[in-house]
Amino acid sequence: MNENEIKTAMAECEENTDFFPICNGVWGRDYMWISADERVYNFLYYFKRNLLINQIFEDDRARFEEWWNGITADNTSSLVARLVRGNNEVREVYFRGRAVDSGENRDKISLELIDVEKVCGHYSDQADVMMRITAYLEHLEGCQFEYDAENKGLRLFRYVSGEEKNETDKALLDLMPVLSERFGRMTSKPDYIHEVIQGKDKESYSVDGACIYKHFELETIYGRIRRNNQRADDIKELASMDKTDSFTGLWNKVGSLEYLQEALKDPEVKQVVVFMMDLDNFKNVNDIYGHAFGDEVILRMSRIIKSVVKDRGIGARFGGDEYMVVFKNLGPETAIRAAAESIRTQIAWAFADDELTERISCTIGISEYPRNGADFDTIFKKADRALYIGKQKGKNRYIIYKEAIHGELTQDTEVSLEQGIRDSLNVGELLDATTECINLLSEGGKDSIAKVAERLLPLYEKERLSIYTGEDLKLYGWYGMKEKPPEDLSGFKKPEAAGMLDKYGICQITFHFAQLSYIEEIHGVLRRNGIYEDSIFALTDKNGIKALVCYERLSSRDDAVSRKWSDEELHFLTLVSRIIAETVLK
Questions:
Q1: β-bridge partners, 375
Q2: DSSP code of 484?
């Protein structure tokens, strides 16, 4: 395949990144690795030990160097060249690169690598796949649309006998000016859109679409328009673009928190019930079955929430797999339990027929106004704490917060609302910090760990970084606060400690919440040494744990607050922790 043919193939299958390796990373202009995602490790093998140019097939190096040196920040440049993987396998790769303005002497190149062989294999099947897709589209309710972002052109059509036919329904055609105007003023870059709009016939219409990007700019939106069974005035609040999650059609975080605040102030509302919930082990589901299946789980959960809530309140997606439901005047505890059990059982059974090794379930934390409090902060925090307790008890359950059982929230132990619901750290800030730490470790080795700790600890709101190595996990060193950590964490060698680590080797211990699985050799040691919170990364091999990298906060700080880290924060911290552990073991 030549480059033009590969680009044609990419246009057909660019949305689906699961069927072939698409790797993203950042290299210096000198071909030195800076940072990359896990797929780069899997595809290139040990690439960080070599200059990228040394992995380019010898006959293609001169052409690759010429292309590399010509990459600018103005637009994305591409090249097809052969690459030698770490296992000496030669693969043809489609490279797409763009310079990153780093403000430093050494330029950075943001690079995407696509396995041409997999693209070609996928492309060869497209004709058969498209026949099946068009046959399916013929039977869909509503009509399809295509929006050309560059020319701001919108067309509506249906599939009839495998061919596109222009839409003739006047009510649908009357929607075109409204849709064109909305698409034209999109400022964010969503992967999916969900709009609810009102037509001239007083009917409401759902508009669902997928956004296609080229060189980081919106190129096309493909989707479907269909009539809703509900009248538009019944869901007019959901149609507000600034209060709606574009993927699921639920309320978003900002809109739902405003709704909760207003409900608590409304004198006609005598009871407000808040459900905080998320899907159990959702990261595992994404990793095992792919993001396409993960998206289907998100959408299925959203539909279940809508079916249970109806007109009794709102359902909201906070982001990722986190949701909130607010009910007004729901009724006695039996009604609360019925709603929670309906959501829990429906999602548990939604994929029961699929042969999954990772079961789909959710955990729900519940609080109620006025029984659990009269103000916004208290109601929100108690629902969030009930969710935490449900996770600790084994997931796939709901917990109704009761002070007699779960205790009171006190000023020095409660999770700050501002911290608990704030947006995660800017990904760009995380990437910059991670890149800086990796550069420090690659250049300075063990001597640079103090500087890395100085960079990471304030970012993650921790006070000390401690490292343990060896057969008995003896203390290797600590950085940050002067107080000395425990001499060893050998308790992690005990069989019962294995369940404390998730599949990424992360264990988070927070002593202001009850520890339901208490291991004296771990929890007791940490608590006696004044550790209030500990986020622990374990580097393991087939023989067990080789090293622990611990990010600690001490109980002596009364003004400190806790919050849940985002997936992005955990991803970057895991990457740096792995490199720290490997550095001290060299």
A1: none
A2: -
Cis geometry, peptide bond prior to residue 370 (ω within 30 degrees of 0): yes
Is 374 or 42 the better-scoring residue by pLDDT? 374
Residue 416 has pLDDT above 50, yes or no: no
Which helix or strand (DSSP H or E) is residue 272 part of? strand 272-279
SS3 breakdown of the chain: % helix, strand, coil, rounded to 5?
40, 30, 30
pTM of the model: 0.37
Q: φ, ψ for residue 542 (rounded to 5)?
A: -65, -20
pLDDT in tens, 245-261: 777 888 988 888 889 98
Query: 326 with 311: CB under 8 angstroms?
Result: no
For the stretch 191-226, pLDDT in tens is 677 777 877 777 778 788 888 877 667 888 888 887
- Could you tell me if 302 and 341 are in contact, meaning their C-beta atoms sit under 8 angstroms apart? no
Which residue has tokens 């949305």?
15
Assign residue 390 a region: left if phi > 0, alpha if psi is -120 to 50, beta otherwise?
Answer: alpha
Task: Specify the pLDDT at position 160.
Answer: 67
* Confidence label for 328 from pLDDT (cuts 50, 70 and 90): very high
Q: Which two tokens stand for residue 243?
A: 């209060």
| Order of strands, sheet of 398-400, starting from the edge strand that comes earlier in the sequence | 313-319, 322-328, 272-279, 362-369, 398-400
| Alpha-carbon separation of residue 434 from 31, 156, 258, 452, 505 (angstroms) | 18, 46, 35, 9, 19
Residue type, 165: K
Q: In what side-by-side order are the strands of the sheet with 474-480?
A: 474-480, 464-469, 544-554, 531-541, 506-510
The rounded distance, in Å, linking the Cα atoms of 345 and 325 is 16
DSSP 139-204: TSSSEEEEEETTTTEEEEEEEETTEEEE---HHHHTTHHHHHHHHHT--S--SEEEEEEE-TTSEE
Range list of β-strands (E), 481-573: 506-510, 531-541, 544-554
Smallest Cα–Cα separation from 209: which of 162, 173, 152, 249?
Answer: 249
pLDDT at position 28 is 86
State the first-to-last Cα distance of the chain, in angstroms, to the nearest integer: 44
pLDDT single digits (tens) 513-530: 444 456 788 888 888 888
**Distant-in-sequence, close-in-space partners of 244: CB < 8 Å, separation ≥ 6:** 194, 196, 238, 250, 251, 252, 255
How do strand 506-510 and strand 531-541 relate by DSSP bridges? antiparallel
Cα 160 from Cα 166, distance rounded (Å): 10
> Using an 8 Å Cβ cutoff, are 186 and 218 in contact?
yes
Domains present along the chain, CATH in parentheses = 3-123 (3.30.450.20), 125-239 (3.30.450), 242-409 (3.30.70.270), 427-585 (3.30.450.40)
Q: Give residue for tokens 């080797």.
A: 505
Q: How many CB atoms lie within 10 A of CB 431?
A: 16
pLDDT averaged over every residue in the chain: 77
CA neighbours within 13 Å on the CB side: how many for 279?
Answer: 29
How far is the CA of 197 from the CAs of 134, 176, 232, 238, 330, in angstroms? Answer: 26, 11, 7, 10, 29
The residue assigned the tokens 């709606």 is 244
Q: Residue 27's beta-bridge partner residues?
A: 33, 109
- 299's CB contacts (< 8 A; 6+ apart) are 247, 248
d(Cα 34, Cα 28) in Å, to the nearest integer? 7
Return the biggest CA–CA distance within the chain.
Answer: 77
Question: What are 429-438's pLDDT values in tens digits?
Answer: 677 788 888 8
